[in-house]
């Protein structure tokens, strides 16, 4: 039996503005209770969208394979895979890129895809009803008070001093009311405008709910030139108004914290017996109103014959020491025992696989994100702890990180 291949079809009828195209595609997907993802890559202008025609097909339970032969779609992976927070891979049954607004990638012989084409060809109400975003059925996570977070940091520092862990990344959730007439799509374009260097995402899927984010951290990337990339991102300070990022001075604590993440990446290369990688940094980078220290790693997959490097590194890296800690298992057990809430998809990973073309994948760590609830949003942020961590400073750091995504709620 031959497998139907996705094809390119023309947008039916006159082509509206990209924001209206996005709205119509999302409307169709959400009204049919299907999983959808929209994203804007760092440093680019155009939004892309992937819509799956079956909610069940998105429940993979496995990290995606990053090979050109693997299915194309959008990965949405939790911090910890569980029944509450299933690992999702949204097959790209429908794919749209605002750069080619006249095109839709789909299999027109599929009856649901033809329903979409019929839907797009019809006139839409000028004053549409709000979109039926998917909402998580899980309870709202516990949100730590300042006293509870101080306690968590102190327990983390104790664990480091006793040698149970070398580094651990504690985190918390915070509830914020939604402003009146909050519009998710407007918030998504607001994020795109505010954070041109971030990976801006909007994912809405049965079982997972709706998540918005502006992540500064690449987990694993394979680009059009066959270059594999990953990064060690850690250390945080506020970007003072008028200050130049490269004038930032880092404390020993942040330098060590970031060096541990970089060392972990090198240990993963070693585990795979890969010696031919480029390492650049650490240097100071801007993420919204914050500065981080970043080391970039690159491998040219056309020169180093390692076709499974992307898939192998993804499995070794997640969750990285920038969101879990080191040693990995000890840090994860510490968090399981002491963090006191469910991170769900915060500090998981997400991004397009084999889109817009096979062999190209871009996965990011799900940071600076929020989860939409019916009347409120749940925001998430964490901080890397070392033996010198001070609870008050760590709390302030989570406040600064929360304000990156919190900006769209004001
Ligand atoms: C865990 C988060 O950030 C990570 C990435 C950059 C800097 C970090 C830090 O300074 O602690 C964190 O490792 C978060 O934003 O919630």
UniProtKB/TrEMBL annotation:
Pfam families named among the record's database cross-references: Chorismate_bind
Gene3D superfamilies assigned to the protein according to its UniProt record, in alphabetical order: Anthranilate synthase
Domain of life according to the entry: Bacteria
InterPro entries, per the entry: ADC_synthase (IPR005801), Chorismate_C (IPR015890)
Domain Chorismate-utilising enzyme C-terminal: 146-401
Name of this chain's protein: Isochorismate synthase
